[in-house]
Amino acid sequence: MRMSFKELKDEIAKIVPKDLEYEVELEAGDIALVTKDPASFADSGLVGQIAKRVKRTIVLRPDPSIMRSQEEARRLIDEVLPESAGLKQVYFDACLREITLVCDDPGEAVGRRGAVLNEIRDSTGWLVRVERTAPVVSKTIHDIRGYRESKADERRKLLKNFGLNIHRPTRPGATWARVTALGSYREVGRACHLVTTNESRVMIDVGVNIASDTDPMPYFTAPEALPLDKLDAVVLTHAHLDHAGMLPVLFRYGYRGPVYCTPPTRDLMLLLQTDFLKVGGAEGKRAPYSMEDIRQCMLHVVDVDWSRTTDITPDVKLTFENAGHILGSSAVHLNIADGKHNIVFSGDQKYEKSWLFDAANVRFPRCETLVIESTYGASGDYQPTREEATMELQDIVTRTIERGGKLICPVFAVGRSQEVMIAVDDLFRSGKVKPVPVWLDGMIQEATAIHASHPDYLTSSLRRSLLTDDGKNPFTSEWFRPVQGRELRESIIMDTNPCIVLATSGMLNGGPVMEYFKNWASETRNSLCFVGYQAEGTLGRRLQKGFGEVPMIIDGRTEMVKIGCEMVTIDGFSGHSDRRQLLDFVDQMSPTPKAIVCHHGDYHKCNELGKTLRERYNCRTYAPRNLETVRLF
């Protein structure tokens, strides 16, 4: 049962002893207890008692009066922290009143039974957490932390406002809920769903159709979506542009509410949105938003880890679970009206363990309605396993190197590039293929650094290789070499020796891969290898259809580039479930959803998957068009 903010404070007051001083503050869906004596709350079990009583996440925050200045706190850290900890960076987050210590040896920083950490906490007054130094350092994460540090006061006010909106008075009338299709229905791209209840309006994903210059945005002008500044919350399943690329447009047109996503999604989203502006500008396209709009996004992000439940509106609770698609990708479980209805948005998902991620989670407390992707939902949509994909990769790499050629691999910077890196690393380490230089061009190096900075979102084996200094970290192998600058790119293009190039963009619709393609595509000794989905309308899809030549702008003129290189598509690297995996995913859900909505696939795939699910599980299925609405209850 929902409580007002006053009722929450009254319930807390019934539990906390009268002699303990504290204030209650809101941090979006969390309740913060601000006190000069955090130890009394932490050591007495009061936090657990309060959380159980009010059914909310309770966090402890030190009162500002006991916190040392950042300069003094840094001096005390240097005095207390042993040199053996290998301190690399100190970040202050005044909004959450927390210090993050990035160290080579976290164990030394924590100390025996937490002694060092406790001493730093007690002497500085700040909360303290420790992170291991990432094997590849991310500039994006560093910049986000710096930006948040500079906007601490504004962020704290925003979190309070988000919380007040969650605890606003109840609206009268019967409860109901529905989902409206604003993008990605009977199509792939510009994913956008609007969940509307009698109390709330929540937008799930805000993507761009990267294959369309004329109609790239979701249906923001639909009456249900307007006005945009009255949305209660935005939730992101993952960072790919077709799911998060148009989020800054909301802020351009007045939205100032919270954006809920996992920490990796936050970091990758900034990287991809920034690159989207950069690439569009280079191609002379009119930008739909600015860097200032992207910064507003970052300011309004509320980080939510997997399996942690949080309130996001007065009648909606959110839980993220692993979707297995890319780093931080999530299925979105929404509990509506105190459990009256539960809906799961699968997001883009992979129900198979990959080199990077565990298989998509199928365990949800309840799920009456499932909204599932249908990218490969038709009867013939079956993909090879990761092992079969590795064999195909080995074959094309071996053939190309033996004839003295170069292999161009257009990749998405996030997900597919790291999978291919691990597969190539395994081929070289095992001796199955003689190593050659592997050039990483575009955002791949930075995206890889973000992966290395979030080991908890990776498989246990990959996490171990990142966190232990055993020489087995695939991301730092000697054959991987970043391309930094145009001069190096040109020298690689002119070099006659065999090599592999992993370059963005993955659909050959722009980015540095185009330079390699236009120079190498005509030579029969070279190869072009697709490892990701090629959307309709992209150059990659045209090549897959067998076009023998394609137009390209070279030195300001449109010229026809003949395709002479060997060309292969390796489907086993896909981050999407094939038809068998989609059916297995639903089969493993318990209980089976009563209604299933199919989207993120063309009309044929959505309908065919829906028909099979309806016949197999005796449930209602829908394959709506964009702008149609499905009532949940």
General description of the model:
The chain is α/β, with parallel strands linked by helices. It folds into four domains: 5-63, GMP Synthetase, Chain A, domain 3; 67-133, K homology (KH) domain (GMP Synthetase, Chain A, domain 3), CATH 3.30.300.20; 153-169 and 176-380 and 576-623, Ribonuclease Z/Hydroxyacylglutathione hydrolase-like (Metallo-beta-lactamase, Chain A, 4-Layer Sandwich), CATH 3.60.15; 386-573, 3-Layer(aba) Sandwich (Rossmann fold), CATH 3.40.50.10890. 34% of the residues lie in helices and 22% in strands. The protein contains 21 helices and 28 strands. The strands form six sheets. A seven-stranded mixed β-sheet has the order 12-11-10-9-8-7-28. The longest helix is centred in the middle third of the chain and has 20 residues, at 263-282. It is globular, with a radius of gyration of 25 Å. 48% of the residues are buried. The model has no long low-confidence stretch (mean pLDDT 94).
Biggest sheet: strands side by side, in what order?
Answer: 12-11-10-9-8-7-28
C-alpha-based Rg, rounded: 25 Å
According to CATH, what is the topology of the largest domain?
Answer: Metallo-beta-lactamase, Chain A
Quote the beta fraction: 15-25%
